[in-house]
């Protein structure tokens, strides 16, 4: 990926744990390494195909000068998030915040924090079989789009499907979403559960009826295996109601463990059911 680098932008700010840092302020040096596709800019010589690094410098300067944080880690996080949200052409940023006058009582050149942040692509499954099913699925999309660091980029058609498991219940309405997000997997799970709760989801019966179900299917090509979260979702190859809408928006996405595409998994599942 191409990069634009702003090296050691000098800005005065009031960040630090000590009271005198908040009162007197000090110098900070900010480096921003920004990832984006510069091919069209290189071919057309058109500034609209890149970002104005003068605007980037002004954004950094304003944030450092007007906000106040105890930790330079927080300052770096706010800079990274602000740049990714404010400059849509960016796919990722690396921010280094240097604190040359850090009050540590020993000689040093500088204290620095470096973080890397980027947009992530994830696929979600949504379903409902209680009340206004379509309304609940639309609600999930609206709530995800309302998040400042997440946007829904593709939505499948909604499909009527038979319930999974042995619990007698109404048919489901299912769909699949593609999103771009700055959230890490655990944070995305927490947000999905919060949206389910807003839709009055009750977890009383396993595989039972629900107003809204949001599952994280894939997150980039990552494999996550914790007590609370497993990505890719372990049930994907077994669930036609997940694979069919997902195939409509991401047929060629390859499962990072099974090394099979979504359309291939759907075809294999259907073939197995016909036997």
Describe this structure in words.
The model has no long low-confidence stretch (mean pLDDT 93). By secondary structure, the protein is an alpha+beta fold. The chain has helices spanning 19-24, 39-44, 53-66, 72-86, 133-146, 185-198, 240-249, 262-274; strands at 2-13, 26-36, 92-99, 111-118, 120-128, 150-155, 159-161, 172-181, 213-219, 224-225, 230-231. The radius of gyration is 23 Å and the shape is elongated. The chain folds into two domains: 2-118, GTP Cyclohydrolase I, domain 2 (2-Layer Sandwich); 120-274, Alpha-Beta Plaits (2-Layer Sandwich), CATH 3.30.70. It is 33% helix and 28% strand. It contains eight helices and eleven strands. The termini are far apart. The strands form three sheets. Strands 5, 6, 7, 8 and 9 form a five-stranded antiparallel β-sheet that branches. A four-stranded antiparallel β-sheet has the order 1-2-3-4.
* Secondary-structure element series: EHEHHHEEEHEEEHEEEHH
CATH topology of the largest domain: Alpha-Beta Plaits
Query: Mean pLDDT score, rounded?
Result: 93
Count of the separate structural domains: 2
Through-space gap between termini: 47 Å
Helix content: 25-40%
Number of helices in the DSSP assignment: 8
Strand content: 25-35%
Inertia-based shape: elongated
In brief:
The chain is an alpha+beta fold.
Map the helices and strands:
Blueprint lengths: L1 E12 L5 H6 L1 E11 L2 H6 L8 H14 L5 H15 L5 E8 L11 E8 L1 E9 L4 H14 L3 E6 L3 E3 L10 E10 L3 H14 L14 E7 L4 E2 L4 E2 L8 H10 L12 H13 L1
Antiparallel strand pairs: 1-2, 2-3, 3-4, 5-8, 5-9, 6-8, 7-8, 10-11
């Amino acid at each position: 990926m191409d990069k634009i680098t702003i090296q050691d932008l000098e800005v005065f700010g009031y960040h630090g744990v000590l009271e005198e840092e908040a009162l007197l302020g000090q110098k900070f040096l900010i480096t921003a390494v920004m990832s984006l596709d510069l091919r069209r800019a290189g071919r057309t010589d058109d500034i609209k195909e890149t970002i104005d690094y003068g605007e980037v410098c002004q954004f950094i300067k304003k944030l450092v000068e007007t906000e106040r944080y105890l930790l330079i880690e927080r300052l770096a996080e706010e800079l990274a998030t602000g740049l990714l949200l404010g400059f849509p052409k960016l796919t990722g940023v690396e921010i280094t915040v240097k604190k040359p006058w850090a009050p540590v009582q020993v000689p040093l050149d500088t204290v620095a924090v470096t973080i890397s942040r980027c947009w992530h692509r994830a696929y979600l499954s949504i379903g409902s079989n209680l009340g206004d099913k379509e309304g609940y699925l639309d609600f999930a999309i609206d709530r995800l789009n309302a998040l400042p660091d997440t946007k829904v980029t593709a939505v499948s058609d909604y499909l009527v499907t038979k319930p999974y498991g042995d619990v007698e219940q109404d048919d489901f309405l299912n769909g699949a979403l593609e999103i771009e997000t700055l959230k890490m997997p655990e944070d995305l799970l927490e947000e999905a559960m919060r949206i389910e709760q807003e839709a009055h989801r009750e977890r009383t019966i396993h595989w039972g009826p629900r107003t809204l179900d949001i599952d994280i299917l894939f997150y980039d090509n990552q494999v996550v295996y914790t007590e609370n979260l497993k990505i890719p979702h372990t049930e994907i190859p077994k669930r036609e109601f997940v694979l069919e809408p997902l195939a409509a928006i991401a047929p060629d996405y390859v499962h990072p463990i099974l090394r099979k595409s979504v359309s291939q998994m759907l075809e294999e599942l259907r073939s197995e059911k016909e036997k």
